[in-house]
Specification:
Blueprint (H helix, E strand, L loop, with lengths): L17 H26 L8 H7 L6 E8 L7 H18 L6 E8 L6 H4 L2 E6 L4 E3 L3 E4 L7 H12 L16 E7 L9 H7 L4 E7 L11 E4 L4 E5 L1 H5 L18 E7 L8 E3 L11 E4 L3 E5 L14 H18 L10 E2 L7 H32 L7 H19 L5 H19 L2 H8 L2 H39 L1
Parallel strand pairs: 1-2, 1-3, 3-5, 4-14, 6-7, 6-10, 9-11, 10-13
Antiparallel strand pairs: 4-5, 8-9, 12-13
Length: about 475
Amino acid sequence: MDALHGFKDVQSLSFQRPIIRRLILGSYWVVILFAIPFWWRLTSIERIALPSNRVYAQLEKRPVFPVNVQLDGSSFQGRASSLASELNVLLAQSMRTSTRWSNLDVHVTVDQNAAVDNQTAHSVYTIAVGNGTVVRHPRHLILSQDDASSATKIADVLTGLLAPEASSRVQRVVQYAKRYRLAFTLLNEDEKHISPVLSQLNVLHDFLIESQVQFHAPLAFEPVQIVSENSTLYGLTPGDLTIFVNSAEWTLSSSVSEDPVLHFLLFVPSSSRQPLHILDTQGSPTKRAVFLLPQWGGIYILNHLGHVGTRTHLTAVDLSLVFSAFADQLSALLGVSSLPHGVKSDDPFTLSDWQLDAVLRYRALENIVGTQQTLHSIVKLVDQIKNMPVDETVRGDVQNALTALEQAYQSTSGLPITILQRSREALSSASHAFFNPGMLALLYFPAEHKYAVYTPLFVSIAVPLIVALGRELHAWRREHRKTAGK
């Protein structure tokens, strides 16, 4: 004990003895050394190899749909064989030069039997000659005498039916989804006029229908007033159509759902703004009462002339016109092409098999391309971010997507609905892999953030231990030199 200050000598304390102090310091380092393997195992990132070679092999691959067209030999009066040969030549040239034919392999043959059994009808397009150009169920095309007079005219009709132009509808068509929610904002819930279209398109999508009624739904702008000698009318310019929907005051939001929503609005203008017409680019009124907002929905403007104050409901005639327009807009938004000019349907209220097959092929190709791009993005992300985890779930989803793609290619010779189902499965698996929670986290938490979290924790622990270790080593060496000097 220090007699002057009344304190014990530090060196006399048992835990301050060099051997005890070094054992305590060593125990810390032993714990750290034993903990490193466990820490490394618990914090290591699982990166299972993805089938990158299979993914890259799919990038340039595209499905080819074989299409068998048969000419009814009995109705072409001996010209069927020559027409078939000319058509094969014309269509082969089109398939080499035009991108709209790039995914079709069309062969024209002659069928001497006028009757087509049900099994053949589901895989063959039949062409016969009649009084007018009409498409019929199942997959029949009746040509007028004029349209059947040459192979060139027949080829033009087949081009519009089998390979409709897709570039004009790319911006208009909504992105593919398994389910759509249809929101009708109108004054009546009657849906009978649109049911035939929905029943045919349910092979592509599931539809959930909602409706609502809104009063006092003002426009966010003032329509153009056009005054003439006899009357006054109001007009919507092409620019007004793009801002027609007053999102600030119109409550058009659907119920909470992740399903994409297509809106169909029946707009009844105020009595002070009737009649309300759509103007052309020159500012002249047109007879159109409907217009389409790409990838959003359709709008129908209904003017009640002569009985604004007395009429409180919509008649069946009004609804028939409105829903017929809505059905056409729905078909356009979902990618259904219209029939070529001069071609009619024997049932104008439903889609023909030619139209349905074309949209099935279009959507299947869209899904296949989307799957290829998604898989390629996954492989690129994993290669670029070295610490991105890839577990068995992600690899399983990628392999399922590749398997579904291969099955889709093998299904091209069957019904279009089969390849659509396979392509839909492929896109779903690829999207599930891309949005895996374990992979998404690394997109927003890179390695720099990890260092920023670990550095304050480990530095505060490591610095005292390293300093103490260096001090003890220095003391040990000093003691060793003193011992050696004696």
